Amino acid sequence: MQAASIRDYTVRDGLKLFATHYGPEQGAPVLLLHGGGQARGSWAQSGEALAREGFRAIALDMRGHGDSDWSRDGRYALDAFADDLREVIATLDRPPVLIGASLGGLASLLAVGEVPEAPAAAVVLVDIVPWMEKRGGEQVVDFMRGTSGGFDTIEEAADAVSGYLPHRPRPERLDGLSRNLRKKVDGRWYWHWDPNFVRPQEGWDMDKINERLSDAAQAIRAPLMLLHGTNSEIVSAEGASRFRALLPDAEVAPIAGAHHMVVGDDNNAFLGAIVPFLRRVQPMAVA
């Protein structure tokens, strides 16, 4: 299997976005888009698995996250993330499948649904829908804001994550967690994203955004799929049902027992659902 490589994309406001490419250059492209406060490393196992299936998986650090540049003015409107995706899509040799978790899914809907010139072979939403559960979203933001001041040790960060995700066993090895942290000159460990991202931002009126997301989803002509955790704090059973009613042709795959962090909770179930779908919508993948 071809070794993974790191590449960068410069978007219109001069920011540089970094991505890890997995799989053969001739493979059908699949863009992997993380959630808020995460980074492209959260897709490492999925990217490697998709590469083994013959796909060209591209895990992108969205602006303000991971190794990508931070917004110069500290603003992170949803439109900026969507614009970035359109520019990355434009560099590819054929329409990709967009697989977006949480923030990545919101940006995918707007990127493709509001600008028909932004082609996509399919759009996959990972535990995100219009009309997400407000309380669940608040819990995510509260955790991010509450830990943005950093940690004395990686072990302290692990304790914080375990408290936030009590359904997951605390990992014995902290290598994966350490990839999402950076040690600064003050000796403390900080999440690898711009703390401005979780400060109050203009353009994040969720009532207005939900209407836009709904309209964008209905405008997409490519195949749509929703994967959601049955224990999700963000996508309720009502939200999933409303999604089905809005988009009766979309595929919906509940991941039993998973919470909002579907890929981290059960990556095998995620792959078991996504690979057959990709085979159907991206038939030009290399075997």
Automatic annotation (TrEMBL):
- The identity of this protein, by name, is Alpha/beta hydrolase
Q: Which UniProt keywords apply?
A: Hydrolase
Which GO terms label this protein's molecular function in UniProt?
A: hydrolase activity
Segments forming domain AB hydrolase-1: 29-262
On whether Hydrolase is a keyword of this UniProt record, the answer is yes
Q: Name one Pfam family in it.
A: Abhydrolase_1
Q: Which InterPro entries match?
A: AB_hydrolase_1, AB_hydrolase_fold, Carboxylesterase_BioH
The question of whether Glycoprotein is a record keyword is answered with no
